[in-house]
Amino acid sequence: GMIILGVYLIAEGDLTMGGLIAATMLSGRAIGPLVQLSLLSTRYNQAKSSMTIINQVMEMPDEQEEGKRYIHRPIVQGKIELERVTFHYPDSPVASIRDLSLTINPGEKVAIIGRIGSGKTTLERLIMGLYQPTEGHVR
């Protein structure tokens, strides 16, 4: 709409080509942050909906059928504490985990999320004692 009006005003001699270009650039800079704000609002609503669904799933009771045998998992008491943990895989110059400190208190539910190769499984194996940290302590 703005460009069509600008072309009309140029044809009438009321606006120069430079004026139209400047007006187009300024309008783009003014509208850009508003578009980003609108996208941020959409992402926030999606995250809020996802969090609601995750909370509903986490609060669901365990499903165990009568008469079936299940593996007994004792409830772990105590906290898990990582203090300045660094871990290198053998023959790797790059640390998979670097200087990580983390405390998980009894009863807390923690989700470890991240991209492929970000160290989630390595962290799990450190916590379970399958790996020993290159530096730091796991308690």
TrEMBL record:
Q: Where in the cell is it found?
A: Cell membrane
What would you give as a GO molecular function for this chain, any one?
Answer: ABC-type oligopeptide transporter activity
- The protein's superkingdom reads Bacteria
Any one of the GO CC terms: plasma membrane
User: InterPro entries from the entry?
Assistant: ABC1_TM_dom, ABC1_TM_sf, ABC_transporter-like_ATP-bd, P-loop_NTPase, Type_1_exporter
Give the UniProt keywords, A-Z: ATP-binding, Membrane, Nucleotide-binding, Transmembrane, Transmembrane helix
- Major subcellular location class: membrane
Instruction: Identify its membrane topology class.
Output: Multi-pass membrane protein
Q: Is Secreted set as a keyword in this record?
A: no
Residue ranges constituting the ABC transmembrane type-1 domain according to the UniProt record: 1-46
Q: What is this protein called?
A: ATP-binding cassette domain-containing protein
Organism this protein belongs to: Vibrio alginolyticus
